[in-house]
Specification:
- By secondary structure, this protein is an alpha/beta fold.
- It starts with a strand and ends in a 16-residue tail after the last helix.
- The strands form 2 sheets. Strands 1, 2, 3, 4, 8 and 9 form a 6-stranded parallel sheet that branches. Strands 5-7-6 form a 3-stranded mixed sheet.
- The chain has helices spanning 28-51, 64-70, 73-96, 103-123, 128-137, 160-178, 196-202, 212-216, 243-250, 269-272, 275-278, 310-338, 361-374, 384-390, 420-438, 444-460, 463-471, 475-498, 503-512, and strands at 4-12, 58-62, 141-146, 185-186, 207-210, 230-231, 237-240, 344-350, 379-381.
């Protein structure tokens, strides 16, 4: 029997970006890059482990916006076009770098893009959700959900109906995509405030995650610290993030991703090469963008960069996986000696760290899973649901208000650059609640309009827009999206109240913003 457990949690999320106007929106590249560099490599890692009979247990949250985009035929076709262009560029790069030190890396990219094309188009029939679903059925994954549009729940909680709609819609969408309701949820930004767990309980959610201080500063001091879950009075369990294991992987300055042998993210041929050569493969307007082809390693903390050596980086990933394993053995061995139950170390990360930001991340995961299974017997990988089956009785307490953002609370999502959005979101939620309360049995065009109004409000509530405004990147796009969805919502409200719905315009909105086809607008009704 193992002395304890490691729970690896990957949070996969991207904001909902789907523009029918034309196929050259820069923001859609966020999805395409993540598919190529994170989601397909993660599936390949699981394929490799399954093929060799290596047991692994990972927890993966797939947010409803990401699931909707991965299942969307329009975006699937656009990704194929994106990948075909990338393959053309990679083939040119193999020829261009033939007699240089970059040749092995260029060949590596071409091979990986070809493999991605095969896996996406043929193996998974363009829908990666089916791949993840298959690994859940095989016991390698526990797939959990997130709030409907990644809304920052503590700042929406002035109307409980807004939180209920975010959670209820998420559970509905997850069940539609994966054939079963989720047992757990990744609260957007791990942001919790008292009362949110009661809404989770209403929709059958069994567990969620909070940052370290969310558990340590709970209403009662946790007997086991962060190494066992707390049971909220609602019956939902809260798992706390382990600082040590998280920092080793997450931190670019102190963790593994900053190693000088790993690939340098910020040196891409989209910016390095002559504009006439690279122009067919960037934005049609000549805007330079990342292509994903990068030839340098981190090297050091200066601007000087040496060529990337894939084999050296692969070896370093194996070394780091061994180091992570060793540290978890020491940690769990110590905890097992002072606890009267087997501890659980919860290590949550953004999924896009693995492959997109840290190119060797998927290799690290594969090596780690292999080493856990074959090189030690101190601990084993586990999912939250499995741990709760082993230990169904836990200390009761309420976590404190917290997030995993900068300084641990709400500052990133409520600051001078974005605070203007909340008065509009709160007022819109009040309007939506009034409409849902007064028209619970709407039918026909009125029901469609109410559903689309709920859809527009949910999209406006996305925490991604406030986050982008706070960080100062792509601010115009975030502001435009927030205003667009709120404007659409208010116009629909007015038409519904006046009984004069512009059906032609409604048709356009339903096609353009088509997330959540089974959305139930009555989730916004007053509870009780």
């Amino acid at each position: 029997m193992p002395k304890g457990f490691l729970c690896l949690v990957l949070h996969a999320h991207l904001p909902y970006v789907r523009h029918t106007e034309h196929e050259h929106f820069l923001e859609e590249r966020w999805l395409f890059e993540a598919i190529t560099e994170t989601y397909i490599p993660l599936l390949s890692t699981l394929e490799s482990l399954q093929r060799d009979g290596i047991p692994a247990r990972l927890t993966l949250s797939i947010s409803p916006p990401l699931a909707a985009m991965l299942a969307d035929p329009l975006l699937q076709q656009r990704y194929i076009s994106h990948l075909d262009l990338l393959l053309e560029l990679a083939e040119k790069e193999v020829e261009r770098t033939r007699d240089t030190c970059f040749a092995p890396t260029a060949r590596m990219y071409l091979d990986r893009f070809r493999q991605a094309r095969i896996l996406f188009s043929h193996h998974y029939q363009r829908n990666l959700l089916q791949g993840f679903k298959g690994f859940q059925e095989a016991g390698y994954l526990e797939i959990i959900t997130c709030a409907a549009t990644h809304g920052y729940l503590p700042l929406l909680a002035t109307q409980q109906s807004a939180v209920r709609a975010q959670i209820g819609t998420a559970v509905q969408a997850h069940t539609h995509h994966f054939g079963q309701p989720p047992a757990g949820i990744w609260l957007p930004e791990c942001a919790y405030s008292e009362g949110i767990d009661e809404v989770l309980a209403e929709f059958g959610i069994k567990f969620f995650f909070v940052d370290t201080h969310g558990l340590l500063f709970a209403s009662r001091r946790p007997r086991y610290g962060i190494f066992a879950p707390l049971r909220c009075p609602s019956g939902v369990h809260a798992f706390g993030r382990d600082v040590e294991s998280s920092k080793q992987v997450w931190s670019a300055s102190e963790g593994y991703p900053g190693d000088f042998d790993y690939r340098e993210y910020y040196r891409d041929i989209g910016f390095d090469l002559d504009i006439e050569y690279i122009k067919p493969y960037i934005h049609p307007d000549g805007i330079r963008v990342n292509t994903g082809i990068k030839y340098y390693r981190i090297t050091g903390r200066t601007n000087h960069k040496e060529p990337y050596v894939p084999e050296t980086a692969r070896e370093k990933a194996a070394v780091h996986a061994g180091n992570f394993l060793f540290n978890r053995q020491l940690q769990i061995d110590y905890l097992a000696g002072i606890m009267d139950r087997r501890p659980i170390v919860v290590a949550p990360y953004d999924a896009e760290l693995f492959g997109h930001w840290w190119y060797e991340g998927p290799l690290f995961l594969e090596y780690l899973c292999r080493k856990v299974a074959c090189d030690q017997d101190t601990f084993r990988l586990i999912t939250p649901s499995q741990y709760l089956q082993l230990y169904p009785v836990n200390q009761t307490a309420t976590p404190c208000t917290s997030s995993w953002g900068n300084k641990g609370y709400h500052e990133v999502w409520l600051c001078q650059s974005n605070d203007w959005v909340y008065r509009h979101l709160h007022m819109a939620a009040t309007y939506m609640q009034e409409l849902a309360d007064s028209r619970p049995q709407a039918a026909g065009t009125e029901r469609r309009a109410l559903t689309q109004a709920a859809r527009e409000l949910l999209l406006a509530q996305s925490s991604d827009w406030a986050f982008i405004m706070s960080t100062g990147t792509m601010v115009d796009y975030a502001v435009r999206r927030t205003r667009c969805h709120l404007d659409n919502f208010l116009r629909l409200c007015r038409q519904i109240r006046e009984g004069n719905i512009d059906e032609q315009w409604l048709n356009v909105l339903e096609e353009k913003h088509n997330i959540f086809p089974h959305l139930d607008y009555t989730l916004f009704r007053t509870a009780g």
